[in-house]
Specification:
single chain, 6 helices, about 20% strand
Length: about 160
């Protein structure tokens, strides 16, 4: 995780761009991992921990109808969380995690089903993950996956003007 976080933070520092998070199943682990990196204060704006479904709408701006129709574990919800983090925290990039860490399935969704999303200047990307292991392993892999997605998107994006 620290390697993925360091790569993302260093790329953002070079680009003078900022980052914010909206986390569900990771419960702040993405933000905690990011702030381990020296120099992060230049790029990290803050984050939202929206574990409860209603907070996804109230704090992160996920459309209530989307949550009612699909539930909190959904790719479009992840995208809305990432966009909400970006908008509500005034950042260039927004990261989001939502999924089922276990030990039991949630709303018919299996343990290990996770969606990570990144919203940036050029759009939003979502990855669906099917992870194995215990809660800690699923949460850790989710953090690594969202940070890797961010790094991939940063490197694919044109340099800021």
């Amino acid at each position: 995780m620290p390697v993925a976080a360091a790569a993302a933070v260093h790329a953002l520092v070079e680009r003078t761009e900022t980052l914010a998070t909206a986390e569900s199943l990771t419960g702040g682990l993405v933000a905690a991992t990011i702030v381990e990196i020296p120099g992060v204060s230049a790029v990290f704006r803050g984050g939202l921990i929206v574990y409860a479904t209603e907070l996804k709408a109230r704090l992160a701006g996920v459309p209530q109808q989307l949550l009612e129709e699909r539930g909190p574990v959904d790719g479009d919800v992840a995208a809305a969380l990432a966009s909400g983090a970006r908008e509500r925290c005034g950042a260039d990039w927004g990261l989001a995690t939502t999924g089922v860490a276990g030990p039991e399935p949630q709303d018919g969704k299996p343990v290990g089903l996770v969606y990570v999303a990144v919203a940036g200047p050029g759009g939003t990307r979502v990855r669906e993950l099917q992870l194995a292991g215990n809660r800690a392993a699923i949460r850790t892999e989710s953090v690594t996956a969202v940070l890797q997605l961010l790094t991939d998107m940063i490197h694919a994006a044109p340099a800021p003007a």
